[in-house]
Hints:
The protein is of the alpha+beta class. It has helices spanning about 1-35, 125, 255-260, 265-290, and strands spanning about 40, 45-55, 70-80, 85-100, 105-120, 135-155, 160-165, 175-180, 185-200, 205-215, 220-225, 230-240, 250.
Amino acid sequence: MNKHLSFFIELLFLGFVQLVASQEIKQETTKxxxxxxxxxxxxxxxxxxxxxxxxxxxxxxxxxIIPNSKINCAFNTQLEYMINPIWGLYIQYSYLPYxxxxxxxxxxxxxxxxxxxxxxxxxxxxxxxxxxxxxxWCFNVNIGAGISFYTTNLYNGxxxxxxxxxxSDAKQYSGSTCVIPKNYRSFTLPISLxxxxxxxxxxxxxxxxxxxxxQTDNIDCRVQGHNNDYMGYAGFGMxxxxxxxxxxxxxxxxxxxxxxxxETDRTVKILKKEVAELSRKIDNLTNIINxxxx
Length: 294
C-alpha cells in the first residue's frame, strides 16, 4: 500500500512539474515570438544632394531634344521616412537656378524654390524579397508633387547688362509671347531615380537624377507652343540614417525577409526552443525520481 501511495504521490508531483514547465515555456515562447516578429529598425534619415540643373523650355525650339539653356549649380535636401523596406515618403526642398541666351538678343536668368512631397519605392526589394537579409545597395524610383516659387529677370544690351522691366516686342519671335514672371507660383511634378550605397549602417552615398514638370510655360520669359516648361537635375549626395547602427539596422538596408521573416522559419525556431526546454525539464524530473528510488 505504501508503494502504491508513493507512486501516486510521485505521479502527481510529475504532473505538477510538467504543468509549471509548460507555463514557463509558453511565456518564454511568447517573448521569443514577439522579439522575432518585431525586430527593431530605424526609419528616419536626412539627405543632402548637390549637382547641376538645366531648364528645358522654349529656348530649345520645336525640333531640338537637348536643351540650349545654361547649366547651373543646384542642390536639394530631404527628410525621409521609410515605412518598410519597399516604400516610404520624403519631403524635399530644391534650389534650382536657371539661365539662357536667346538668339544672341536677350538673356533670361532666375531661380526656382521647390517644396515637394514624394513617394519612394525600392525596386530591389519590390522584385527580390528573398535577396540577402542585408544589402549595401538601394535602387529607388521616386515620384511626387508640390509647389514652386520662381522669379525670372530678362536682360538685353551689348553684354546683357540692361534689365528689361517690360515685355519686349513679341513679333521678333514667331508664335510666342514675352512674359517676365515676378514672384510666380506653379504646381510641379518631379520624377527621379536614386542609386544608393551604404558603406556603414548609418551613412548612405547616393546619385540622384530628376526631371521636373511645371504647370507653366513662362519660366524662360517666353510662352510658346503647347508644352509647359521642364527642369532636369543630376547630383551626388550623402544621407545620414538617424540612430542606425549594427544592433538597430536602417530599414533601407534590410530585405523583406529580414523585416518580416517567413512564418514557417519562425515556427520551426519556436518549436525547437520548446523541445529543448521540455527535454531539460524531463531530465531534471528523471533525476528526482531516480534519487527517490535508489
